[in-house]
Amino acid sequence: MAMTVPKEFFSPKSVAVIGASRTKGKVGHEVLKNFVQKFKGKIACVNPKAKSILGKACYPSIRNVSGKVDLAVITTSAAVVPQVLRDCVAKKVPAVILITSGFGELGDEGQHREQDLKKIISGSKTRVIGPNCMGIMSGAVDTIFNPAEKQKRPGKGGIAFLSQSGAVGSTIIDWLAEEGIGISKFISYGNQMDIDESDLIDALKKDKDTKVITLYLEGVKDGKKFLSNAKATTKSKPIIAIKAGKTSAGQKAVMSHTGALAGAAEIYSGAFKQAGVIEVQTWEELFDAAIAFGTQPLPKGNRLAIVTDGGGFGVLATDQAEKLGIELPAPPENPARIFKQRFPEYVSTKNPIDLTGDADAERYRISIEECLKSNAYDGVIAITLFQLPSLDPKVVDIMIQLNKKYKKPLLVCATGSSYSQKLMKKLEANGIPVYPTPERAVTAFASLYKFKR
Amino acid sequence: MAMTVPKEFFSPKSVAVIGASRTKGKVGHEVLKNFVQKFKGKIACVNPKAKSILGKACYPSIRNVSGKVDLAVITTSAAVVPQVLRDCVAKKVPAVILITSGFGELGDEGQHREQDLKKIISGSKTRVIGPNCMGIMSGAVDTIFNPAEKQKRPGKGGIAFLSQSGAVGSTIIDWLAEEGIGISKFISYGNQMDIDESDLIDALKKDKDTKVITLYLEGVKDGKKFLSNAKATTKSKPIIAIKAGKTSAGQKAVMSHTGALAGAAEIYSGAFKQAGVIEVQTWEELFDAAIAFGTQPLPKGNRLAIVTDGGGFGVLATDQAEKLGIELPAPPENPARIFKQRFPEYVSTKNPIDLTGDADAERYRISIEECLKSNAYDGVIAITLFQLPSLDPKVVDIMIQLNKKYKKPLLVCATGSSYSQKLMKKLEANGIPVYPTPERAVTAFASLYKFKR
User: Fold this and answer.
1) Which has the closest alpha carbon to B244: A439, A372, A184, A286?
2) Any CB–CB contact under 8 A between A408 and chain B?
3) Considering the domain boundaries, does residue B141 fall inside one?
4) B-chain residues within 8 Å CB-CB of A249?
5) Contact yes or no for B256 and A169 at CB 8 A
6) Would you say residue A399 lies in a domain?
7) Do residue B278 and residue B357 come from a single domain?
8) Do B106 and B190 share a domain, yes or no?
9) What Å distances lie between residue B261 and A360, B167, B280, CA to CA?
10) Cα–Cα distance, A97 to A129 (Å, whole number)
11) What is the per-residue pLDDT for B262?
């Protein structure tokens, strides 16, 4: 059954943390602290043993909180969850994030307990994300219990992350924040006893902040619903998905993680294809595709120009392009003539264009701009080994400027220590994705093309 | 023909930089600067237009330098290379690194010029690495012309890198230095007009500082010789190789890079197999395998224990293990009993052992140590999401201690922003390789097992 995800999950006016704690490191403390630091609306604590925590009044039950509560976050032990959830229903709380674990993922007994929770909300207006999840990071709502000194929070951007696994999802967020890449929403949805991945996909379809939806999936709850919601979404927005538990050993691991029925790998791959979902095979590929879709326009075709100052990386990129069906046409007359005029004779002006080990920023400007301009190319990958003595760091500003001027994808491959990392972060903070190896850059371009097609 | 690589390449007593320059950023300046900063022996400059550079006397030709010259580094333009090489032969210089490009990689005409160079050294005692290379980084010899402020230098360690491509090889070095991982020798050998990859493999076989040899290869010069030298080496030391130019487009790219005949991919894969060389498919895999071989012992078998605090990463690791034929046996009675006693009921004590989102350092200590101790396992991968509030950073010290105590491979998977990165670097500086994704960690373990088998 299709279900609308209440807007109170993402823009509540009042919240309650049930199981709020004064002990640093406890989930009920870290979640409350996040709200105290970022949330401008009303914050109530539910803890029968305290009067106030972090300056917020405590109540024995959510029923005692005066006024409406839009969003309740449950961080108590599993034993008391049925009671506090009953209280939420009685209080008519529209949105509940149930972080507590110890349900469906524990096997038969836990699954019974999860069924009991479903009965409690049945017929009510209370909708639940979880249990066994980290919840939401979106604007002022941040129920991710990893403390800010251990995990950074990204700024605003076009990438939404849906993750059945909390810890796994939160590391990608931490890494994106480090790189200066923004997100629209992060939702760790756990055992999906009520709201499932398909409901969330539908909600993100309508979300104007979200440019691309990424999805870490262990098992889909309702195959038909997933197919229908995903299909409707990919007409306008890309979905990139990784299915964990594709092997038989992996399926067993899924059972003791989120209690999902992992199902046969082929069925999932078939469904993804039918729904226009881009399936990736590794965690890294998910990340790499996400930053390409989140920042760059789609290419019109598969004709790629590769510019490099390291010939070897050019060769590896070429191998990967051929493997993935990406064309590398030689420069047509017009840019070719300009290259001959402006470059020393030892520069290889085929494709890859090898600017060689004494490349300077100007060679990059000419080659990238002429390829972005040319009708012969749908996108450019610039392999930039910043370590070369002749290469001025202003090459980064040139790329940022060219990326704004031309509406074609520009991806960069670079790697190295602090000097290079500073330049790489500057590119990423300005919306140019950077990949540490040529193979990964080409694979990301191929993902963009795959969705376009 | 087998050729001994003169020891003067690695431990010269006197050196000359031919084409030494006072202009910052020029190759002849950067190479000279490296020697001035690190080399304790005699340094001469060859530059007919200067009296001294960086405090070192200049000579119009190497013939005018008094006393023996063990190692000459040529950084001049291609046009004068024949003359300066003739001078090196006349001076009886045993070791020459020819950095200059503009030879075989430029096609027919360049190949003729390279043949002419070969004639010059023919019958002499002068041996050449290059042309079109970056040369050597080994102890006080550092001809890598990327300036130190742009590229870091790694400390001492067991990994040797042989790279046909200079720029490509130097980025891996830069990245290793950033991570605190040491190398024994880095050799960028370019067009291999004289000393080829097989000669260098033979030299590294005998090198007691080198624990593992990694190889970026575009084309082998003499197939028989490669097979024979590689085979003799892999009896005692692993060789990990990546062959670039495996596709037809990639082969063309190789031609304009190092001028090598790339040859059919299948022939290379067959030869690697026959010689006991571990072939990897991507640049990343080369790096990942290198740090595993460079730091960890070989596993006795393929039975792996996975410990995690993020269930999703455990699932992805499991999928990858099954794909690569790595076994994940459930804990036998003995550790299983201890796990039941010491861990809360919601900890999943199968394999992966999911310590869950409130894991602490003690759970890691118990699970890693019991698996390393147990006869049921040949190695452990610890997936450690440091971001969790309950996880004390001392978990890193525990891992370092356990890695020293037990002679089984221990690999870590972790990722994140500055907080996590600091802990990851500490692990790597103490000889524990860290991988950003579960798939990469499992693949690295599989490489170790592959060589052992």
Assistant:
1) A439
2) no
3) no
4) 318-319, 321-322, 328
5) no
6) yes
7) no
8) no
9) 29, 20, 20
10) 5
11) 58
- CA–CA separation, B285 and B444 (whole Å): 8
Among the candidates A295, A319, A338, a domain finishes at A295
Residue-wise pLDDT tens digits, A253-280: 777 676 666 567 788 888 999 999 999 9
Tell me the pLDDT band of B251, cut-offs 50, 70 and 90: confident
pTM, two decimal places? 0.89
Q: Find the mean pLDDT for residues B83-95.
A: 98
Residue after which a domain boundary falls, among A275, A295, A315 = A295
pLDDT of B258 reads 67
The pLDDT of B284-295, averaged and rounded, is 93
Q: Is residue A138 one of the residues assigned to a domain? A: no
E strand or H helix that includes residue A424: helix A418-429
- What percent of chain B lies above the pLDDT cut of 70? 98
Which residue shows structure tokens 């020798």? Answer: B185
Residues A282 and A318 reside in one and the same domain: no
Q: Looking at the domain assignment, is residue B140 inside a domain?
A: no
**Residues A203, A303 share a domain:** no
CA of B231, closest CA in chain A: separation in Å?
Answer: 25
**Which chain B residues touch A416 with a CB distance below 8 Å?**
151, 171, 174-175, 178
Shared domain for B310 and B443, answered yes or no, is yes
Cis peptide before B12 (omega within 30 of 0): no
Domain that includes residue A252, residue range: 151-295
Query: B126 with B199, same domain?
Result: no
Judged against a pLDDT cut of 70, whether residue B2 lies above it is answered with no
B-chain residue closest to A27, CA distance: B389
Min CA distance, A12 vs chain B (Å)?
26
Number of domains in chain A: 3
Residue of B nearest to A393 (CA): B150
- Residue A38 in contact with partner chain B when CB distance is under 8 A: no
Please count the CA atoms within 13 angstroms of the CA of A422 that sit on its side-chain side: 9
